[in-house]
Structures are given as C-alpha cells and as structure tokens.
Write a structure and sequence with these properties.
This protein is an alpha+beta fold. It has three domains: about 45-160, no CATH class; about 175-225 and about 250-310, no CATH class; about 315-525, MetI-like fold. The protein is built from 18 helices and 17 strands. It has helices at about 1-30, 50-60, 70-75, 85-90, 120-130, 160-170, 245-250, 265-270, 295-300, 315-345, 350-365, 365-380, 400-425, 425-435, 440-455, 460-475, 480-490, 495-525; strands at about 65-70, 100-105, 110-115, 135, 140, 145-150, 150-155, 170-175, 190-195, 200-205, 210-215, 225, 230, 235, 240-245, 280-285, 305-310. A four-stranded antiparallel sheet has the order 9-10-11-12, with no helix packed on it. Helix 10 (about 315-345) runs antiparallel to helix 11 (about 350-365), helix 10 crosses helix 16 (about 460-475) and helix 16 runs antiparallel to helix 18 (about 495-525).
C-alpha cells in the first residue's frame, strides 16, 4: 500500500508540473501580450517615452520580461554616497542624443555608444553580457521645452524555462528570522510566548515577516500558522498587487468590528477608551517605512504594525467547497436510489421517465439548463438569482448547488441502473433465487453492494467534477468562489490568476484520483495494493 501511494504521489507531482507548465506556456505564448492593456484605463494616459516605460512595467508585473532602467542602476550605484557630485553627472549622461547611435527600424535598439561616461559603459557591458537588449529612448523637445524624458533601459524576455523555474522554485516558501532586513530588528529569534489574546501559547518571531508564526484563536480552523507559505503569485489587473493565495483563502464579506485591546495597551498595561476595531492583531506583519499616527497609536514603537481586518464572509475556496460537496452529497442520495429503482422497474414507466431525464441532462448544454432551472427557482420558489442579493445568505447557495447536482444525478442514475442490470443475470443472483430469497432481499444484500463497487472510485472525482463545473455556475450566479475567480482572471488577462487556478484544480485532481483508489481498495476485498495482492 505504501509503495503504491508513494508511486501515485510521484506520478501526481510529475503530472502537476506538466499540466501547470503547459498552461503557463500556452498563456504566455499563444495570447498576444498587448491584450493586457485592453481593460487598462491608465494605458491611454501615457504618451511617448513614458508610455514605453509604462508598458515595460506592466509586462514585468505580468511576468513577460525583466527590465532595468539606467536611472535605477545609478541610484543603486550611489546608494551609499548620495551626495557624490558624480551622481548628477552620470544621471544627465543619457540626455546627450549625439552619444547614442540607434537603428529606427528596430524600435530604438542601441547599436553603438560613442560617449565617454564610465557609468553608461558599465551599464551597457553588464546587461549585454547577461543577455539583455538595450534600448535608448531619446529626449523629446518642443522648442526648448522638454516634454518627454530620455530613458536608457535593459530588457530581456523571460524564457519558458526561466518562468517555470521561478514559479515552481517559489511555490512554497518558509519564513526565517532573516526575512526582514531593517535596522530596527536588533534581536532575531523564534520563541514560544504566552498569548494574552487567546490565553494560549504562541510562536513569536522577530526578523520574520509575520510576528505570530503559530497561534490559536476562535476562528476556524482555530490553529493557524505563518511559517509555510504557498505562493500563487500576485494579481496585477484583477486585484491590484494582491497575493492570490490570500484572496482565495481569506474571508470575504463585511468588515466586523469588536472591542479588543490594541497591542500598545497590552505592552504598557495602560488602557484608554477607543472605538471597536476590525483588525486581527494576530496577522501583523513587518511594516517598512515611517509608521502613521494611527499605527503609532495602536502599536507604539513595534515595527510589526500591518494587520488584516476581520470579515464575516466565507473564503472563495470555502464557497466552492461548500457548494461542491453538498451538490455531490445530494447527487448520491437522489441518484443512487433512483437508479436502483429504475433497474428494478426496467422498461416500466418509472424507468422510461428516468431515462428521459438522463437524455435531457446529457443532451442540453450545461449553460442552457442552468438558466432553465434558475428561471424555475426564481419564479416558482422566489430564490435569489444572484448570490449577493440573498437576504438570507444560505439561500444564495441553493440554486448553484442544484445546478451542479442535476447533471451528477443523471450520471449516477445511468451508471447505477446499468451496473445493477448487469448484476441481475449473474450466477450468484441465480443461486440466491434458488435459495428462496425474495427479490427485495437479493437487491438489498447482493446486487446493490456489488453494483456500488463500480461507483466508489468515483466519489472523490465527482466532488472534483462539481468543483470544476462550478466555473460556469459560479459565474452565472455571481458566487464568489474559485471558479468565478478563473473566469474573471481570463476576462482581465490576469496571467497569475489563471496559473493559480490551474494549480488549485490540478492539485484537487491528483488528490481525488488517489483517494478514489484508496476507497476502492477499502470497499472491494478483491483489490489490494500490497505485494502479492490481486
């Protein structure tokens, strides 16, 4: 069993890298990169050289290329000596157009530099030796007035292997006491301390990104950790510079305020009257730069002064799992009994009605029957059509859940009926009849359990199917889940979101297949994954 599970895990990991890598290649190679500006309201605000710089910034954010400007190179060079008079001389070196020979046919690609500025030559030598293309954007004047600044940039498109290596290499990270490099961190440690907020011990870090590395509270799952992180990338266009993992797993909904002590009050032991706050002080991260007055009031001199606010909603992944799991449960408690009854009433009226439903649900496109049942649900039962319009939150899940369960019910009806009819003519059934058992006893004790063996393997996969089917359902009903996130990411050309959703669904697929095999081995005594088993 262990060898089999290990083998499946290894094969699953290989499949994971292949699927995610393929989607990443298609996303970055087959779609015109300029599509990212289709829904960008800021794009047309820029002109001339500034527009080129904006484009490069966005291309770098979306993961198409890596680029550096000469100005950033100079600032880094003189970072330890900002008063050096050579700084301004080097900065102004690129204003002399006559020092640069360029080929207009190749979009201002640098051909030759004829000047004598040493910093410019160092910039050229360093980035050319590392495979970068150099571009010189000359200053533009209207008479004596400068209206477009000059830029000297080095850029390089990321290769497929660089992009894959960067993504998979940073997919999982661990916090260390050396993550924060700031002069305010004078003592670096990880140690257990008593947490007065939860009256439980907590692992506290200094020099780590998060202050609370392991802590307890009254929010599910009650035990939280900030040591191991899954990095799914940064959303650029859908959520401006937001961590996708945090968006998927973080609570949604309205901000919830409560009376709680500020960290400065716990540190000093002195309390003062203040309004209720929504900040979850267990989520504080290190804050770079000068703190605001509000941060000083709450945190005092503690540099860990950035916290996430409490919200009363369920996360995206939570919404998807709630709908998917309930839909699968409903499908089994309805589809299996109906399939059994159809087999017992083969070619009778009930069987014909059931087959009619199976044909309907398989023949009609999913989007069509979703709208059909949405119309029935809203008109006949006054159910909310959009999730956000539900006055009682639980009602917003009903239509999406039913829409996901309906095709699964049809599939289970079809296969259960087929497997049971196959079993009805088996020798062991004939033997049971010869022993005088009634048809009800034969179906309940022999045929049904044996027919169900063929469906056990599909239980985790059916849950996955409901989750993947939610891509359309969540979009129709505006349910804030992972499926809707994927469609929104595609519409906004947010590559990071598309890849992150691929990681999510690929991981679920691998887990579902392994769990299906384990369930089959547990339920069917004929299946064994041990050596020497059949």
């Amino acid at each position: 069993m262990r060898k089999y599970v290990l083998k499946r895990i290894i094969l699953g990991l290989v499949s994971f890298f292949i699927v995610v890598g393929t989607v990443m290649i298609f996303t970055y190679s087959l779609i015109d990169r300029r599509s990212i500006f289709a829904n960008d309201p800021s794009y047309n605000k820029y002109q001339n050289n500034e527009k080129v710089i904006y484009e490069n910034n966005r291309y770098q954010q979306f993961g198409y290329l890596r680029y550096f400007t000469y100005s950033s190179y100079i600032n880094a060079k003189y970072a330890d000596d900002p008063d050096n008079p050579q700084l301004e001389i080097d900065k102004s070196a690129i204003y002399e157009k006559s020092d640069f020979t360029v080929d207009k046919k190749e979009d201002n690609v640098l051909r030759n530099y004829k000047g004598d500025n040493q910093s410019v030559k160092e910039f050229i030598d360093y980035y050319q030796s590392n495979g970068y293309t150099l571009r010189y954007l000359a200053p533009m004047y209207a008479g004596e007035t400068l209206y477009s600044f000059p830029y000297f940039i080095a850029q390089k498109d990321l290769s497929v292997f660089e992009r894959l290596g960067n993504y998979f290499g940073n997919l999982i990270s661990f916090e260390t006491i050396f993550d924060v490099q700031d002069e305010r961190i004078t003592d670096r440690y990880m140690k257990w301390e008593w947490d007065v907020r939860s009256n439980m011990p907590a692992l506290i870090g200094n020099g780590t990104k998060h202050k609370y590395l392991i802590y307890f509270d009254n929010q599910f799952p009650y035990v939280h950790q900030n040591i191991v992180h899954i990095n799914l990338g940064i959303s650029v266009s859908l959520y401006t510079d937001a961590e996708i993992y945090q968006k998927i797993t973080g609570s949604q909904g309205e901000i919830v305020k409560s009376d709680q002590l500020y960290p400065v009050e716990i540190a000093t032991g002195e309390t003062f009257e203040h309004d209720a706050t929504a900040f979850d002080f267990h989520t504080v991260t290190f804050g770079y730069g000068k703190p605001t007055e509000v941060q000083t009031m709450m945190y005092g001199d503690d540099p860990y002064n950035n916290a996430i606010q409490y919200k009363d909603g369920i996360s995206m992944i939570g919404n998807s799992f709630i709908v998917g799991i309930i839909a699968t449960f409903v499908a089994y408690i309805v589809g299996l009994p109906v399939g059994i009854w159809m087999a017992r009433r083969k070619d009778k009226l009930f069987d014909k009605i059931g087959n009619l439903y199976i044909i309907f649900i398989m023949a009609v496109p999913s989007l069509a029957y979703i709208f059909i049942f949405a119309f029935i649900g809203t008109r006949a039962f006054n159910l909310p059509y959009k999730f956000a319009n539900a006055t009682i939150p639980i009602l917003g899940y009903i239509l999406p859940m039913i829409s996901l369960a309906l095709p699964s019910i049809g599939g289970l009806m079809k296969w259960m009926r087929r497997y049971m009819i196959d079993q009805m003519n088996s020798d062991y059934v004939k033997f049971a009849r010869s022993q005088g058992l009634s048809e009800g006893e034969i179906f309940a004790k022999h045929i049904s359990p044996n027919a169900f063996i063929y469906l056990v393997h599909s239980i985790p996969i059916d849950i996955l199917v409901c989750l993947t089917g939610a891509i359309i359902t969540e979009s129709v009903y505006s349910l804030p889940g992972v499926g809707r996130l994927l469609t929104n990411g595609i519409q906004k050309f947010d590559n990071s979101v598309i890849i992150a959703c691929t990681v999510f669904y690929t991981t679920l697929s691998i887990i579902a297949l392994i769990l299906g095999d384990l369930l089959l081995a547990k339920y069917d005594p004929r299946i064994s994954f041990t050596e020497g088993g059949n």
